[in-house]
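Service request form, structural biology core

Requester: graduate student, group of Dr. S.
Request type: structure prediction, single chain
Budget code: on file
Notes: please return the result as structure tokens.

Sequence provided:
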Amino acid sequence: MARSIVSIPEKFGGAPHVEGTDLTIAEVQAYWSQPGIYAAQIRERFPELSEAELGAAVTWAEPKDPKHHFIAERSEPSRQRFTICGEAGDWSVLIETLDEDGAVFSSKDYWEATLEDALRYFQEDGLENLAWTDAETGLSVDLATLIDAK
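Core staff response, request fulfilled:
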């Protein structure tokens, strides 16, 4: 099982690294970005990392806060939480099914270029009437008005 990429303030000054190692993501990415370095060389240089860990390290990017973040929930027929976040050209959709304690036991995620395309997942499932809330302010929001405001 692949280890996670983590940031711990007390280790490497909080720089992201592969959990349980002394390898920072910056170190792996710096080696990988050198001219003439191929998969065989990076595997040889970092034998303690699995293929999955190497892949995660070389493709890792600093997370950014989305410009927009909206949430909605429903309780019937099953309890679900819905999240749409992003900005023009980069929207993510997260659909989580929750157990009776509120813990996530299954989820699906999608990426779309437009908010209109992101909302299509809810329309296809008959969920176009969800009550959306801005996650930052807690205020209700009509996502259709954001589409119309383009």
